Amino acid sequence: MNISGNTQRSLGPGVQYLLDYLKRMQSDNPTFFYAIQDDNDEQCSGNMFWTDATSRTNYSYFGDTVRVDTSYRADRSKIPFISFTGINHHAQPVLFGCALLLNESENSFVWLLQTWLQAMSGHSPVSITIDPDRLVQKAVAQVLPEARHRFCRWNIFRQTHEKLANVCQANPTFDLEFKKCVNEADTVEEFESCWATLLDKYYLMGNEWLQSLYSIRDQWVPVYLRDVFFGELSTVDSNDAISLFFDGFFGATITTIQLLIKQYEKAVSSWHERELKADFDTYHTTPVLRTPSPTEKQAANLYTKTIFMKFQGELVETLANPATIVDDSGTFITYRVAKFGEDHKAHTVRFNAFEMKAKCSCRMFDFSGVICRHVLSVFRAKNVFTLPSEYVLKRWTRNAKTGGEGSVPESASELPSQYGESSVVRHDNLRQEAMKYVEEGAKSIHVYNMAMNALQEASKRVAAVKSKNSGVTQGTSVANGGNLGTHAIENQSATCLSKEEKEKKIRELSGELEQTNQKCEVYRAILLALFRDMEDQKLKLSVKVQNARLTLKE
């Protein structure tokens, strides 16, 4: 089942196009990082990796689990494009970096992983998901020995459907039963029994493909991996959320580097807008509570909207999953938790009353980072109505992207370290203030009109600042609307500076310019989102007013 073998590809002039693109991106943004293996100024024939400041910052928040997508290797007609992705606090895919691999050798994959790790400040993920590929597997074992790695389950499902096409065609239910056996087994024993039954039912005991899958079952079947965090909220979803970043953007039509870069930029922009919308929905959509439990109210204020809905589903299920004491001797109390009528699927929860900690045999919290219904049922039985802090992962909360740990990594960057942190903090502060502004502005038509006028004026000022800065040439940048006269004097005195001092000054001014441009982009994105929302609010208010008038007339 492994893809193997060294391959050297050639993409003609497209490679030079990509190299020029990467150089231009770094020139425009000093925090943009790229690297080339076997770099030659005259001709680029090696492998290339790149990542931007946003990806590197996101990794500092959500770099606990990573997906390395090398699925192109199964189709030799595809451009050799590799992506590093993760999952953010809204359970959306987030990008950590990309690569073009022309020389597909074991050394190339080792170089790629080492370069990516360097760009991420050397912080290894807790877990990593890869395709069933011998070269990639060996490189991961060498570069990321501490990370738990697994094979992409959905890739294996796809390959199984292709290799057992005749079986699937003759038995339409096989594909569904196969996935159910893998995804829904609660225990190793249940999986083993289900697997044997499936093979016996469809006369596949001697099938080599299924035998090869079974021999590596601990590297792709969820029940064997639940002791490690993979950020997977559901094992029965129709697809692998962490791999969806470029879905809908890349397809069979991507045959040139030029088109690939165009679609890459579209994907990055699209997911940025989706995250902003998810932020807005989280802060301005009041969750409907389904129980009187204080725990649910606490979770609603802590988690993002998507994660709260997952938690809420588990909490509601406690009503149908009572906890029964089976052992109350010593420090730990052991509970048996099972759904009514499903005693054969019971789980065991060990509860420490002194430390207020519980451990469930389902290992859901370890695997997904969201507390399970079984532990919640025990908490309910013990009158624990506040979630202990250790059961709330910050990466799933509204405040996931706050704090100093989110600064842009400094490796391969000459900018001061405080730049990344302050940029993130500014972004969060602006967003929080903007959200409050929308709430006030939507209360009435009069307040709405006043708020809209203020926003439009602010938008003009932001555009003016950005226009002024974008027109300044390199080496004479004006940052944050600074005084032109002051910078002119500084530039006159710069002629007396040494070459090294001039280069340092250029880097500093370029950094200031980038900060201002990035701040303007944040303003622009927030203002656009606010405009759209306030227009929606205006429409809703207009409908309410019209309905009120009709009611009065009647």
From TrEMBL:
Question: Which portions of the sequence form the region Disordered?
Answer: 401-423
Q: Name one GO molecular function term.
A: zinc ion binding
**Can you say where in the cell this protein is located?**
Nucleus
Give the matching InterPro entries: FHY3/FAR1, MULE_transposase_dom, Znf_PMZ, Znf_SWIM
Q: Which superkingdom heads the taxonomic lineage of this protein's source? A: Eukaryota
Q: What does the record give as the function of this protein? A: Putative transcription activator involved in regulating light control of development.
| SWIM-type domain sequence ranges | 347-383
Q: Cellular component per GO?
A: nucleus
Q: Name one Pfam family in it.
A: SWIM
Q: Name one GO biological process term.
A: regulation of DNA-templated transcription
Q: Can you name this protein?
A: Protein FAR1-RELATED SEQUENCE
In the record, the note on similarity to other proteins reads: Belongs to the FHY3/FAR1 family.
Q: Which UniProt keywords apply?
A: Coiled coil, Metal-binding, Nucleus, Zinc, Zinc-finger
Coiled-coil segments: 499-526
